[in-house]
Design a protein that fits this description.
single chain; elongated
Length: 135
């Protein structure tokens, strides 16, 4: 969904690449992949490693995430351990849990609003269908 992509401060990949240009190519690849994780969702360190074509580099992924210079822009808090535990976070585990919970609530509100608007639009179309499209 488009609103999910826009939630990370609407930065495009090329803009993020400029911000992380001083990191290693591996670290850049990890952080850019993490930018693709949708709002309110999580992925494991293993998923990130597989997604960048380095399935055996789970610890290196975690290390790369720990070097994230912009943790509120590049959402490394969305990466958790395979067993469901949050794992480490540059701002602390409590902050990680808080951000994950906040994102789930925000996503729920956004989806609820989208659904209300869709229902309202359908209702209006249905009401106007008997008027030949004239309001």
């Amino acid at each position: 969904m488009s609103w999910q992509r826009g939630f990370t401060l609407t930065l495009k990949k090329r803009e993020v690449k400029k911000l992380i240009k001083d990191l290693s190519p591996f670290e850049q690849k990890v952080l850019l992949k993490v930018m693709e994780i949708p709002l309110g969702e999580t992925r494991s360190y293993k998923w990130v490693a597989n997604a960048i074509g380095k399935p055996g580099n789970i610890r290196q992924v975690a290390r790369a995430l720990s070097k994230n210079p912009y943790p509120l822009i590049i959402p490394c808090h969305r990466v958790i351990r395979s067993d469901g535990n949050p794992g480490g976070y540059i701002l602390g585990e409590e902050a990680k849990r808080f951000l994950l919970d906040l994102e789930k609530r925000v996503k729920s509100v956004i989806i609820g609003e989208c659904n209300k608007r869709r229902k309202n639009a359908r209702r209006i179309r249905k009401e106007n269908s008997g008027t030949g499209g004239k309001i």
